[in-house]
Amino acid sequence: MEFRIRNRRFSRSWGGDLAIFLLLGAGAAFMALPLVYVVCSAFKPLNELFLFPPRFFVRNPTLDNFKDLLILMRDSWVPFTRYAFNSLLVVSLGTGGHILFASMGAFAVTKYKFPGNKLFSTMVMLSLMFAPQVTAIPGYMVMSRLGWINSYASMIIPAWGMSLGFYLMSKFMDAMVPDSLLEAAKIDGASDFMVYWRIVMPIVRPAWLTLIILSFQQLWADEGSRFIYKEELKTLPYALNQIAAGGVARWGVASAVALILVIIPVVLFVFNQSKIVQTMATSGIEHE
Length: 288
Description:
The protein has 288 residues and is mostly helical. It has two domains: 8-62, no CATH class; 72-282, Orthogonal Bundle (MetI-like fold), CATH 1.10.3720. The chain is 70% helix and 0% strand. It contains 15 helices and no strands. It has helices at 2-6, 14-42, 46-49, 64-74, 80-111, 117-127, 136-146, 153-160, 163-176, 179-187, 192-203, 205-221, 236-244, 251-271, 273-282. The protein starts with a helix and ends in a 6-residue tail after the last helix. The relative contact order is 0.13.
């Protein structure tokens, strides 16, 4: 009797499943409301944007907001293609370097034993507790001493050393990459770099896909105003936000700008959300 009770399977009724489904659906709909409102506002004419009380959904959709945005972009004294190039350069180099250095550092710390590796992991974990405002002044002093003010390096190089990437990669490697597999590869004659590139990186693919999304979101939203003061080195979000900051007359343009800045990270997240969930679940597993 005791054995049967211990191995008994508990299952919900269809009513319980329906209640959970409705509850989760209501929560998902509530969380999607801000995104739906941004999309609707981007296509509202000015008379609907100034209504009080405001309407949630658009009644007479129009593309005038995007047309006005294109006109203002053409009138910019710095070509808008330069802003786009700056953003693409910072996002691509910053994200690629972050994935490379985070994965290589996590591989060395988790799979090789050397004096101080535990202390190093603890220091990286503690660095996650510091808010960006705490390190703003020291970061500016470092960039000034290195001579990186008004250069792409002030935005790209700090992205390479973000501690979140190292933390996620190290947890994922520790839980999903067995030491026996690496030992077998070395017995077969594989070098350390081959083991890292040909074995470890394919296994931890969900982790670095997650880091691509997180790093892209952070760098895409960075205006570069902390260390870059030359207009020709500014990024696309800076230019779009400057256009939108023209007062009440540009509320329609501001709505279009908000949609452009939000839609690209959202689309990237939607196509890789399963990898993010897998990475977040695995990063909390303690591997013995």
